[in-house]
Specification:
Layout: E1 2-11, E2 14-23, E3 34-40, E4 47-50, H1 52-60, E5 64-65, H2 67-76, H3 86-97, H4 103-108
Parallel strand pairs: 1-5
Antiparallel strand pairs: 1-2, 2-3, 3-4
Length: 109
């Protein structure tokens, strides 16, 4: 199975990541098939650069993004927000409404 995931680069305590397509069994910083872009979480706001055309081609071929990459793709408009797991969508909706993330579950009880 192919995964679209992050590969760590950068110096110690200063991470940056490449968005790569790799076999699910390969190590995190091991062999990969293609580089789709990069992600730097240390900038404010964090920097995400992804080749949209390559990403959609790999998704069409069946590559599965990890949860973090799915969030980045939704933020960049490559995937729809419905691609996020339900708990993440609820947390985003709560944040937009100005409530803490756990408030929705507490009010339902």
């Amino acid at each position: 199975m192919l995964r679209i995931r992050l590969r760590r680069t950068g110096a110690k305590k200063k991470p940056s990541y490449r968005v790569v397509v790799a076999d699910a069994r390969a190590p995190r910083d091991g062999r990969f098939l293609d580089i789709l872009g990069y992600y730097n979480p240390l900038t404010d706001p964090s920097t995400v650069v992804v080749d949209r055309e390559k990403a959609t081609q790999w998704l069409a071929r069946g590559a599965q993004p990890t949860e973090r990459v799915t969030r980045l793709f939704v933020r960049e408009g490559i995937l729809p927000e419905t691609a996020l797991p339900p708990r993440v969508r609820e947390a985003i909706a709560a944040a937009r409404a100005g409530r803490p993330a756990g408030a929705a579950e507490a009010s339902e009880s």
